[in-house]
Structures are given as structure tokens and as C-alpha cells.
Predict the structure.
Amino acid sequence: MTNSSFTKKKVTEVYRRPVTVIPFGITVERDGHAKRSSTSVKTILFVGRLIERKGVEYLIQAMPYVLRKVKARLVIVGEGHRRPFLEELVAREGLKDVVQMVGKVSEESLKRWYEICDVFVLPAVVDSKGDTEGLGVVLLEALSYGKPVVASNVGGIPDIVIDGQTGLLVPEKDPKALGDAIVYVLTHEHFSQRLGEKGRKYVEEQFGWEKITDKLIDLYRNAIRDEDSTFNLR
């Protein structure tokens, strides 16, 4: 069992047996959370560890492209060993007034950030060790709030982000493409709203715990049935 099509491919390269994809599940609140910030400044949100494979530097480098077209701020939630490097990059790019690195926050604060953001971005990359996102659970969280998402086309992310339907996919390590996608979402309100609505529905249907639990039960039932059949043949 693996958590995405990407990890299934990796497993089947070394394990020549059938592999079932059952992703991590998420609770989707019935009332929805599709709020927007009350100011004219758009909020771009990233949540995750500050490590290489999250690609946060490319999001920071995308901000100048965004700011040419939109009044916006970038909020980075999370901690990690690359924080000093990212802080230096923010200063070097002259972005101290528009990039907030808020560190680790409480569950209540995180919920608030999800609620008020205008777009959620996961600029993940394949890192220097060949590691990348196995799935991208923060994307599920953002979509459960009805938010439009922009993410890199790497790893298991395409299992969640269907380009143009549940979000926008961009090439990894490309600040301009990332910036252009963010601007498009922030300047096309109806499109943005539609992405969030479709994304939320997709997450509820494909990643809700009821769906995931049913898949797990079926998997174990089939495994027991296969084991019984093998035992009876002995």
C-alpha cells in the first residue's frame, strides 16, 4: 500500500507485486471555510517545514513577479534548518515588508491563516538527494477550506492538483511560472472561486476519511481472502 501514484511507481520498481494506492485522509468540515481577507492586500500562504524539498526559496523569488501586478503579502508558516537562508534571501530580494515568516503556530492560528488566505502555494521540488513530496497533505488542508492552490508538478502532488480543475500546476524551480500562476489566480476571481469549490469537492469525495476507511477495509478483506485461499490450497 502506498499514499500516491508517485510512491506506487517507486515501490513497484523494486517490489514486483500488486500495490494499492490509499492516500492520507482528511476531515472536511461540512460548512466550508471559503473566506477572504478583508484588506486590498492579497495573502499568499505557504505551510510546511523549511527544508530543501519544499522549494520555499522559489516562492520568495516569485514575489517580485507577483508584486508587479498585485498588492500582496507572503506568509510562511513553519520552521526548519533553512530558515536563516530564507531570511537572508528575503532581505537580499528587498522583500522584508511583504514576506512574513511566522514560524510554528498553534492549530487555531493555522486555521485562521487558511481561512484568510487568497491562495495557497506549495512550490515543492526534487531536492539534491532525489527526495520530493510523496503526496502533499497541506494541499488537502488548503482545499478543505475551499482555497485555490498553486503547486509544483512533482511527486504525488498531481494526485491532488488536477491542473485547471482543482488547482494550477507549474514546473518546479521556476519562479516566473510560479509567479504568473499566482497572479492569474489572484486576478481572476471567478476562476479562483471555481478552483476552490471544485478542489474542496474533490478532496471530500476522494480523500475524506469515510472514503479512505472504506478502501482500507476492502484492502484488508481482500488480503484475508487471498490468505485463506492460499492456506486452503496447501
